[in-house]
Design brief:
This protein has 16 helices and eleven strands. It is of the alpha+beta class and 354 residues long. The radius of gyration is 29 Å and the shape is elongated.
């Protein structure tokens, strides 16, 4: 472009090539010039890139100046069937040397590494305060939700399910764990599986539904995704582990009602009488030497895993019970906002604790 102020300050005529103001491309010589969302550029601007890609130079109209450029150009764009905002003009696409198509993480380990890098989990920012502990099985469940969603027939695969889903979900899981720790005056902040259900709004907005999914509803689809994810992760941690002692306790009439706000001490006190439950926590990497919030998170994982594996049932009010009891619901529901916990021993009356 012509810079009149530059010409006036230098006492130059506008026809002098010293009055030329060089744009971004000439100034990016010997560098990498990246353009994000290439289809959003107007067609004339895309056409202006032809000579640079074809000849490797830029010419200034009206001046006998030709700049030989040495730069690499990189463009990013979504697939044309993904958005309807614009397209890459065909002649420009023909001059692009290589096209690299990215993909979603193919393994849960890679997905967990990306989420750990991008999510805001450590809220201290150098300040004093409790460190957030997200057990590995909780991270795996969060990641598995995205894998389940990408293969679910009720979710539109053309729109896809990006890695933003587990990132946003994990951040909401941590927030709910912080809320419980503050309300219960717990020194340690440990995430649980029930926090994943509390993070439901961060999941439903990250996918688009097909017709069958629209009929079922986004909340119910998301709950099914969480349950399937818990079942897959639970099977990986407890494959071949004997859990019949816990299942028998519920088969004998025992019930247990919890919520995402139940304090760790209250939860452990009520489940202490369930034979073999605490010992199963060792298979989740939690031992008796760990803190109570960590043990409570392991117990919560085991209970929800048994429910997802259809060995016990859970009502809409988050009451665990045997699968053969009448009135038991197979549908996953949101945790109710009540910090009380109730447990019924086999053959005894209910005792409520607040």
């Amino acid at each position: 472009d012509i810079d009149p102020i530059k010409a006036a300050r230098g006492g130059l005529q506008l026809s002098d090539e010293l009055t030329v103001h060089y744009g971004l491309l000439p100034r990016a010589n010997r560098g990498i010039f990246a353009i994000n969302e290439l289809p959003d550029l107007a067609g004339k601007i895309q056409v202006g890139l032809f000579n640079i890609l074809q000849e490797g130079d830029v010419q200034i109209k009206g001046y006998p100046v030709r700049l030989r450029l040495n730069l690499m150009m990189a463009f990013t764009a979504n697939p044309e069937d993904y958005t309807a905002r614009g397209k890459i003009v065909t002649p420009l696409k023909d001059r692009i040397g290589s096209e690299i198509r990215t993909h979603y993480p193919q393994t849960r380990r890679d997905a967990m590494a990306i989420t750990e890098q991008e999510s805001w989990v450590d809220r201290r920012d150098g300040l004093a305060g409790p460190k957030v502990n997200v057990p590995k099985f909780v991270r795996e469940v969060v990641e598995e939700i995205a894998f389940q969603a990408r293969s679910d027939q009720k979710i539109d695969r053309r729109s896809g399910v990006s890695q933003r889903l587990p990132i946003s979900c994990l951040e909401n899981v941590v927030s709910n764990a912080e809320h419980r720790a503050l309300a219960s005056a717990e020194a340690d902040v440990v995430a649980r599986i029930t926090d994943v259900y509390a993070a439901l709004p961060s999941i439903t907005g990250k996918f688009e539904l097909e017709y069958e999914g629209e009929l079922k509803g986004a909340d119910n689809v998301a709950r099914d995704l969480i349950r399937s994810s818990v079942r897959n992760v639970f099977t990986g941690w407890f494959n071949g582990v004997d859990t019949h002692f816990v299942v028998e306790w519920f088969d004998m009439g025992g019930t247990l009602q919890i919520s995402d706000t139940t304090a760790s001490g209250d939860l452990l006190e009520q489940v202490a009488q369930i034979q073999g439950l605490s010992e199963l926590a060792a298979h989740a990497g939690i031992t008796s030497n760990d803190s109570m919030p960590l043990m409570a998170a392991a117990i919560d994982f085991i209970l929800e895993g048994l429910y997802a594996d259809k060995k016990i049932s859970r009502t809409d009010e988050w009451r665990y019970r045997a699968t053969d009891q009448p009135g038991s619901s197979a549908r996953v529901s949101e945790p109710f906002l009540d910090s009380s916990i109730a447990i019924q021993q086999p053959g005894k009356k209910k005792n409520y604790y607040n």
